[in-house]
Amino acid sequence: MDVLIPIIASIIVSLISLVGIAFLYFKTLEKTLKYLVAFAAGALLGGAFFHLIAEASDLQTEKNFIEIGVNIIVGFIVFLLIEKFLYWHHCHEKKNCMHHISYMNLIGDFVHNFLDGIAIGISFGISLYTGIATTLAIALHEIPQEIGDMAILIHFGLKKTKAIILNFLVSLSAIIGAIVGFYLSDVEMISRYLMAFSAGGFIFIATTDLIPEMKKEESKKESIILLIVFAIGIIVLYLAKILFE
Predict the structure, then answer these.
(1) Residues 216, 220, 225, 230: is their CA dihedral positive or negative?
(2) Among 20, 70, 198, 231, who pairs with 150 as Cys (CB 3.0-4.6 Å)?
(3) Is residue 142 in some structural domain?
(4) Number of structural domains, the chain?
């Protein structure tokens, strides 16, 4: 497979950073965000378990299963550390804090998008359909994330135009990650461990970022709808696994 395919996929994911612009000017779109979050949470878990972990677990030895499990946990912890130290920053001097938080958020996004790119590159290196499923899961969770990032950047002092440009430039790190991941996929053991690592990241995002947002819903009716949408996200990735193979 040509490296151009994961590059195109990562460019598409990077362009999603511009979706935040629509939410700056069309407030009514915010009503649909909670459903997108629920679907993305399901898609990420489906992508992690049905595609990434399934592909990484092809080596049928107990030792390799344990090593893959370790890499899933490492991926989870690394994404936790990224959020802890690059997103959850506390300031004491308000004057200097505003822009500092914005730039820390951009650094966190750069690393996060780079790791997303690696997942895309590795997945396309394994198979076209695994790459498509991984790209779909990443793209879905990027939409609410990028909207949130835009809100943070503007809230903490950046002008709209500057926030849009910087957020887009930072998202391009996914392209670098996709190239790196694609070529690393030629080394079987590295590719399997990186897929497990990426799965750990997917599980972290779904369980600590997206599902908690679903739990904030107080209406029983809306909560049931969100659970259904969440389940649909899982089912879509499951069907993709079954049909494409």
Answers:
(1) positive
(2) 20
(3) yes
(4) 1
